[in-house]
Fold these 2 entries.
Entry 1:
Amino acid sequence: MSATQIIITLVGVGLIGWIVWYFWLWKGEAVAAQAGAGGVQIVNVTVKGGYQPAAIVVEAGRPVRLNFTRREASLCGEEVVLPEFGRRAHLPEDKTVPVEVTPEKPGEYEFTCGMNMYKGRLIVR
Ligand SMILES: [Cu+2]
């Protein structure tokens, strides 16, 4: 193989690796909740083509307030569901809707849109 062929091969492999990582492996950076009054853990979540942030780190045993704001006309994110907590909320466009839960046990808890298309995770430590 010539040097050019080696370089082209390496670039190709790198590109494939990046595509695999970006589309299948990357789940978004986890964001830690901010401490609010009374020990509430607060996170602002934007709903637009998904949840931003989609991974939220909180501490067990303390209340968590997720402030959901839907910033899109699409009806996909109109409803958010937290199945493990038996909670669901309607999210009107451009209005912030707080959803409070208290995760007692460490673990990962999913939240999704009403159709189970948008997915986010509450990582409880
Ligand atoms: Cu949906």
Entry 2:
Amino acid sequence: MELELTETQSLIQKTTREFVDRAILPVAAELDRSERFPKEILAELAKLGLMGVNLPVSLGGAEAGVVAYSLAMMEVARGCASTAVTMAVTNMVGEVIAKFGTEEQRSRYVPRLTSGEYVAGSFALSEPEAGSDPGGMRTTARQDGDSWVIDGQKQWITSGSHAGVFVVWARTGDVAAGTKAISCFLVEGGTPGLKVGKKEDKMGLRASDTVSLTFEGVRVPASALLGQLNGGFKIAMMALDGGRIGIASQALGIAGAALDEAVAYAKDRKQFGQPISAFQGIQWPLADSKTELDAARLLTLRAAWLKESGQPFSKEAAMAKVYASEAAGRVVDRCLQVHGGYGFVKEFPVERHYRDVRVTRIYEGTSEIQRVVIARSVLR
Ligand SMILES: Cc1cc2nc3c(=O)[nH]c(=O)nc-3n(C[C@H](O)[C@H](O)[C@H](O)COP(=O)(O)OP(=O)(O)OC[C@H]3O[C@@H](n4cnc5c(N)ncnc54)[C@H](O)[C@@H]3O)c2cc1C
């Protein structure tokens, strides 16, 4: 067993860390306050190879693997969770196209995502009536001559106002066929009939873009079908397995930042004539937080390593995601408490971390759905 990072992994971690310290941390609070989509930061991330960490160099990626991707995601989330989720979804979209796309689809879209020509990619699975159960989706795609025509609604789509390409799931057969009649399509931003709805007014991740989408007779060529006809549901599930490693890493990055800040604050803040770090009531939550984050990190890096080495990782990714997101929630809550009243105001970043971390228990499969995935495997 080897727990050391490779040279490439250390280099990606260090490069990302330096970039986050220099270019993201100084603006993170302002991005949150102004809800400004971080276009210029995303362009810089693309230049660093971070929009395709696990994608081949031939497609513009860094070809550094899944562990490196997880480490980079932790670093970016340490700086700005909104930037991190945008990066996560773009990496996921690039990977889906690289894995399931034809040569033409791969060469058309992936280099545009990795290079930053497309500021982001979007993953359009959820619908107003189909979240945890995407098999219940209502969006349809019907064949019309040489085209597909897509009609329906998608909900909660990250980067939906900015994406150059959307991976979109739609029903291509009878409702009775359930998940066996769902296909996946690539739709370019700006395609006629694709309408972007209002931006969600979110509790956290306020600089990320989350919108609804309406598809009104959106016509795409036959070549827009990604993977097999009626084989789209499997693509979604496989993509989400990998995506969960990204969200676990995001949760770790946010909570790691909160813990560093709480430690520094506890050493600095004095009450009863001594730093509050001298009180056992402050020390123990910090100790518990460090322990839980380390455990979450090991689960997450194991899932990343399994994916990278081509082994099954679905259960491990779900375990990493549920544990890391829930541990991160506990850690950020304790870190806010360490700040006392100052944790409750926007002057200290822990207030933002508290809001940002909450969604990691919800998207890319809620905690309950991760437990369904894990239990299915345990009871098999
Ligand atoms: C900020 C943000 C960004 C997002 N980005 C994207 C995106 O880019 N693309 C995309 O496709 N989606 C995206 N989502 C959607 C996200 O994945 C869904 O919100 C999530 O899957 C839950 O679906 P839902 O909100 O419809 O909740 P529901 O599915 O309605 O769930 C409600 C509650 O019921 C529970 N529940 C449901 N089924 C079960 C069950 N079988 N057993 C036990 N409990 C259950 C859930 O865990 C939850 O607690 C995003 C969401 C948010 C908030």
